[in-house]
């Protein structure tokens, strides 16, 4: 067993746009898990949904504005630099080769993403590259049967210390402060001519207004 690793994390999402649900969860995870940093990683070409209505460059720019005053949060642009669909396993492979085999790396996922993870490209290799930290939400249940249930049963731990002693391979579920905010709701408010102020950072809203996004 390794002693006292300093874990780092990566939080993938479409971030269309990034909001306080993402940001508050990211900061709480940094503190609960003792992460050196957590990088929000906007996907360029989502493998699983229609192309977002604003560009990957714009979504990454909004993430950069959102994290610029918090040193523990970063924006990771690697999926913008890669051709093709933004498969998470490819990003984890890149991160693992940059960080080296001795670093503790965690992939952060919302529970909605976890439910569908068995449809992801090479999903069973994810835990060979990183731990997975799942953000639990009120009203959400684990699957009781099927491949995701079996996978959770085989790899789940309730011990946060595992992130300081192991480099990859475990699933941790964390209940964080619930914030009922979604990017869909923010886009809908903007399209309806209503304000999403206070659901997302002011510099992100300024960027949306200046670029006339989501109209
Ligand atoms: N309010 C929230 N609290 C905690 N996690 C969240 C919240 N909103 C989204 N997430 C998680 O953040 C990750 C990235 O989310 P995403 O960028 O798709 O945002 P979203 O608000 O769910 O977007 P959309 O409404 O467009 O589906 C997902 O794993 C999702 O589960
Ligand atoms: O790798 C895959 O096959 C894959 C399939 C679906 C989703 N993902 C990733 O899951 C993350 C959350 O996606 P979303 O739709 O909740 O924003 C985001 O980083 C996606 O790139 C990844």
From TrEMBL:
<comment type="similarity">
    <text>Belongs to the NadD family.</text>
</comment>
<feature type="domain" description="Cytidyltransferase-like">
    <location>
        <begin position="10"/>
        <end position="188"/>
    </location>
</feature>
<keyword id="KW-0067">ATP-binding</keyword>
<keyword id="KW-0548">Nucleotidyltransferase</keyword>
<dbReference type="GO" id="GO:0004515">
    <property type="term" value="F:nicotinate-nucleotide adenylyltransferase activity"/>
</dbReference>
<dbReference type="Pfam" id="PF01467">
    <property type="entry name" value="CTP_transf_like"/>
</dbReference>
<comment type="function">
    <text>Catalyzes the reversible adenylation of nicotinate mononucleotide (NaMN) to nicotinic acid adenine dinucleotide (NaAD).</text>
</comment>
<comment type="pathway">
    <text>Cofactor biosynthesis; NAD(+) biosynthesis; deamido-NAD(+) from nicotinate D-ribonucleotide: step 1/1.</text>
</comment>
<keyword id="KW-0662">Pyridine nucleotide biosynthesis</keyword>
<dbReference type="InterPro" id="IPR005248">
    <property type="entry name" value="NadD/NMNAT"/>
</dbReference>
<protein>
    <recommendedName>
        <fullName>Probable nicotinate-nucleotide adenylyltransferase</fullName>
        <ecNumber>2.7.7.18</ecNumber>
    </recommendedName>
</protein>
<dbReference type="GO" id="GO:0005524">
    <property type="term" value="F:ATP binding"/>
</dbReference>
<keyword id="KW-0547">Nucleotide-binding</keyword>
<dbReference type="InterPro" id="IPR014729">
    <property type="entry name" value="Rossmann-like_a/b/a_fold"/>
</dbReference>
<dbReference type="GO" id="GO:0009435">
    <property type="term" value="P:NAD+ biosynthetic process"/>
</dbReference>
<keyword id="KW-0520">NAD</keyword>
<keyword id="KW-0808">Transferase</keyword>
<dbReference type="InterPro" id="IPR004821">
    <property type="entry name" value="Cyt_trans-like"/>
</dbReference>
């Amino acid at each position: 067993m390794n002693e006292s690793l300093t874990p780092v994390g990566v939080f993938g999402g479409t971030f269309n746009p990034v909001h306080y649900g993402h940001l508050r969860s990211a900061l709480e995870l940094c503190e609960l898990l003792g992460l050196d940093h957590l990088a929000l990683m906007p996907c360029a070409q989502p493998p699983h949904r229609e192309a977002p209505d604003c560009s990957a460059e714009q979504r990454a720019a909004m993430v950069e504005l959102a994290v610029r005053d918090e040193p523990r949060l970063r924006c990771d642009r690697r999926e913008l630099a890669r051709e093709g669909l933004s498969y998470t396993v490819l990003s984890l492979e890149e991160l693992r080769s940059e960080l080296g085999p001795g670093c503790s790396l965690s992939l952060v996922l919302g529970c909605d993403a976890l439910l569908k993870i068995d449809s992801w490209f090479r999903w069973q290799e994810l835990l060979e590259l990183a731990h997975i930290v799942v953000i639990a939400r009120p009203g959400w249940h684990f699957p009781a049967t099927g491949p995701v249930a079996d996978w959770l049963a085989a790899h789940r731990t309730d011990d946060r210390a595992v992130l300081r002693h192991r480099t990859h391979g475990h699933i941790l579920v964390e209940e964080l402060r619930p914030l009922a905010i979604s990017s869909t709701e923010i886009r809908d408010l903007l399209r309806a001519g209503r304000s999403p102020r206070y659901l997302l950072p002011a510099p992100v809203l300024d960027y949306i207004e200046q670029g006339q996004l989501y109209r």
